[in-house]
Design brief:
The protein has two domains: 112 residues, no CATH class; 67 residues, Nucleic acid-binding proteins (OB fold (Dihydrolipoamide Acetyltransferase, E2P)), CATH 2.40.50. It has a five-stranded mixed barrel with strand order 1-2-3-5-4. The protein has 189 residues and is of the alpha+beta class. Strand 4 and strand 5 form a beta hairpin. Helix 2 crosses helix 3 and helix 3 runs antiparallel to helix 4. Helices cover 42% and strands 18% of the residues.
């Protein structure tokens, strides 16, 4: 096999090297993804937390692997079809870009399906719940309430400005949220 590769001209040798290396990395990435492994190589594919952009990432490790894999194989196919070198480069580059765009679009829409599961306490405002552990009057002690937030029943810490303790079983509503995520509640009349 090495004789085949060493006797090859430089132009096809470049395309075979790119195609085989891209395919190898693609296969390793695919296997790691199927096994649940981390394939982002650190923070290459991750977004910055403070980024307020649209989240569409064109230049990522996975997209580049897809580009080089398709670039190599489409170039080999063009050479086998007898196309000229400039046309082979143009077609393989265009095929690689199409692959990158398809993968970027696919990952963008797959990320939209992902739910972070992070509780947004502001979604609890005006919700009705029930006291689970006594909430002390005039913010004297933190209690706990059961409340439905973001589609699931949660047990959250709460305080009140009421003049009487709110005992377990009392029906309450959330009026505000403190800076550190404690609910401010009032007794429902």
């Amino acid at each position: 096999m090495m004789d085949w590769y060493t006797t090859m001209e430089t132009f096809p040798k470049i395309y075979w090297t790119v195609a085989l290396a891209g395919s190898l990395i693609f296969t390793i990435t695919l296997i790691l993804s199927l096994l649940g492994g981390e394939t982002d190589l650190g923070d290459v594919d991750t977004e910055i937390e403070t980024d307020t952009g649209i989240g569409f990432q064109f230049l990522t490790f996975k997209n580049l692997v897809g580009f080089f894999t398709i670039f190599g194989w489409s170039g080999i196919a063009c050479m086998d079809a007898g196309l000229s070198k400039p046309l082979t480069i143009l077609i393989s580059f265009f095929c690689g870009l199409i692959m990158m765009a398809l993968m970027a679009t696919m990952f963008h829409y797959m990320k939209k399906l992902n739910d972070s599961g992070t509780l947004n306490y502001k979604n609890a405002i005006n919700s009705i719940g029930e006291v689970y552990l006594t909430v002390g009057k005039n913010r004297s002690s933190i209690g706990k309430v059961h409340i439905n937030v973001q589609g699931s029943l949660r047990e959250l810490e709460a305080i009140t400005d009421e003049s009487l303790d709110l005992k377990p079983g009392s029906v309450i509503s959330v009026t505000e949220i403190t800076a550190n995520g404690i609910l401010i509640i009032k007794k429902q009349s």
